[in-house]
Amino acid sequence: MNERTRRLLELADDELVLGWRDSEWTGIAPSLEEDVAFSSIAQNEIGHARALYELAAKELGTTADALAFDRSPEEYLSAPLVELRRLEWARTIARHYLYETADAVRIEALAASDDPEVAGLAAKIAREETYHLMHADLWVDRLLDTDEGRARLREAVEELWPYALGVLDDELRPVWAERVRARLEFELPDVEPITREQHTEELRELWEEMTSVRRSVAAGAEW
Amino acid sequence: MVTADDVWAALAEIPDPEIPVVSVVDLGVVRAVEVDDRRVRVEFTPTFLGCPALDVMRDAMAARLAALGAETEIEVVLDDSWSTDRITPEGREKLRVAGFAPPAPREAAAPNLVQLQSSVFRCPYCGSTETKLENIFGPTPCRSLRYCETCRQPFEQFKTI
Questions:
Q1: pTM across the whole model
Q2: Which of A74, A140, B97, B115 is 20 to 30 A from B158 (CA-CA)?
Q3: Arch. (CATH architecture) of B4-76
Q4: B79 chain-A contacts, CB cut-off 8 A
């Protein structure tokens, strides 16, 4: 697999897995507005994953569905940050903010690439992600506004920080970490990132669920 | 023999599956039509990448053009060539009449929260600009929810993309 394909798959796997996690709020988010927001965001992320898989699939001579669902959990290139299952609101918002801001740095870099297919798709994705960033930012404002909100956000960000550091590579990470530190008004430790190779148990559980329909077809089920 | 005009006219009959008051031509998702005798090539540029209506639109276009007797190829172009600015003036008017506020024009800088929270967006029911943002997200990824302070009517605002 060449560098271009690996980058596309890292991004696609992140968006697919996070899209799945975000969709877990559908029907049970703390308010109707957030239910709608996370459902839309999930839909966008999975749409991005599909388009990115299609680009990668052309290179690899396969299909987007095969890349999304026919690989073993070990073959996914997702970052552990998106794999975590955290049905708790402060952690969800902390991950949302950390992921969307990191993703924006990466998409910005891809949009500036001299590969026209990659740059074109990245520019399109960036337009949609603008609204995810706005939503995440609004929540950070809201949580920083009260003592309880600030304490809960801080606790969640501290827990997720090593995971968040694993989203970007060594080149892009410092730019992003600087932006987050400037925004959040509390100290964040210098720790080792939890990298893409260190998959979580939660990815395996998610994989079981996410691929169950696809695997049942191979086993003879009709839908 | 099929002409480009026949193809555009046929495509103009295909409604958006989620907002059937506008056609795929009104939406601006058809980027180009090329006709070579009976062979038709259409470039289709998606709205939102995760929009579930995309496959429905593509299949409906293929079926409609096949009915013209054309051998059809629909190429999906995955780049930034679709913007809400591509919605035609007729399309915008149809949206407004149906109760959707059309999108603001795309600007060089990305849209921001201050813009969305300002009251400039016009209510499609009473025309007032005393409106406020209720939620960045709405029933589909392409829309936000707003509320009109004048006629007290919630409405959907197209996001600028």
A1: 0.94
A2: A140
A3: 2-Layer Sandwich (3.30)
A4: 116-117, 120-121, 123-124
